[in-house]
Amino acid sequence: MANQYEEDDYEDDTNDGTPTGEVPADLRKALKRLQRENKELKESNATTQSELRSRSVKDVLESKGVPSKVAKFIPSDVSTPDQVAAWLTENADVFGFSAETGSSDETKSENAGNYQRINNATETAISPTKDADLLAKLSNPNLTRNELDSLRGEGQSTGRRKF
Question: Which of these, 57, 64, 106, 159, is most buried using a 10 Å CB contact count?
Answer without folding.
Answer: 57
